[in-house]
Amino acid sequence: SSAPPPSSPGAAPRPRLHPAKGRRCARSARPVSRPSAMAAQKASSIEAATRRAAEVPVPMDDDDDLAEEPQGYGPMRRNQEKGDENGIVFRPAEVEDVVIESVDEEAPYAKPEFAALTPKQQGVRRQLRRVPVPPHRMTPLKNSWQQMLQPVVEHMKLQVRMNTKRRCVELRNSDQTDDIGSLQKAADYFKAYMLGFDQPDCVALLRLDDLFVESFEVQDVKRLNGDHLSRCIGRIAGKDGKTKYAIENATRTRISLCDNKIHILGSFANIRLARDSVCNLILGSAPGKVYTKLRTVSKRLQERI
């Protein structure tokens, strides 16, 4: 075999055959520059170190007492302190003293206070009430006239007179009357007296606002005539008024029996209890049975109080 011709200077190297596999392989013609890669890596590390150094705060003179403790994962443990079963030490947190200043917010303006207007300032005109006097109550009214006038004139500041021609009591408000409803209260006061209630019981209508008078007849509950009506009224009154007083004391009401008419004075709930007891007597219930119910009612009233 002839020798290969000499290669000319400056020509590219020719591929040679691999002795083991019998194929041609070309050498890499890329030059390797290792020093330049190392310089770039070193420059990047320097730049990262400079950036980290710029982010670290500069220690001050008064930061010596703030010694950094080694941080790690999990709770901190110290040999001098005792912990719980797991060795965890709980220490109270230090909180600076906080001073709370209360600011008194003053109202923009004070609440106005005005005196109550008199009926004359409210434009209330003179009003008149007439209460008729039945013939059987004329004599008791004459006997207790001074007692009837005292609370109406002194406390209610009303003007009262007896009209003998019309046989009625006339009531009128004056300039000194403070309450507008005083005239109506005084009218109810005299009406209750005309129905047969005593004067001390009627005064309660002037002092309290939740008192009423309810009236009904025996025929409204059951039609009774003759002796049956008389016996019914006797059952309601009882011997010497025993049954009537028992109902009054148990229900805290006052009852007035005027022939076949029954008047009850008291509050709304108490009037209902007394009316039920009276209706049971009218329908024929025995007084002993009514007494038993009254005991239960009186116990309930005491429990409420």
Structural description of this entry:
With 305 residues, the protein is α+β, with helices and mostly antiparallel strands. 37% of the residues lie in helices and 12% in strands. It is built from 10 helices and 8 strands. It has helices at residues 34-55, 138-143, 145-155, 182-194, 199-202, 204-207, 227-237, 242-251, 268-282, 287-304; strands at 16-17, 24-25, 128-132, 158-163, 168-173, 212-217, 254-258, 261-266. A 3-stranded antiparallel sheet has the order 3-5-4, with helices on one face. Strands 6-8-7 form a 3-stranded antiparallel sheet, with helices on one face. A hairpin with a 4-residue loop joins strand 4 and strand 5. The longest helix is centred in the first third of the chain and has 22 residues, at 34-55. It starts with 15 loop residues before the first strand and ends with a helix.
Keywords:
305 residues; alpha+beta; three-stranded antiparallel β-sheet; 12% strand
Secondary structure elements and pairings:
Elements: E1 16-17, E2 24-25, H1 34-55, E3 128-132, H2 138-143, H3 145-155, E4 158-163, E5 168-173, H4 182-194, H5 199-202, H6 204-207, E6 212-217, H7 227-237, H8 242-251, E7 254-258, E8 261-266, H9 268-282, H10 287-304
Antiparallel strand pairs: 1-2, 3-5, 4-5, 6-8, 7-8
Helix pairs in contact: 8-10, 9-10
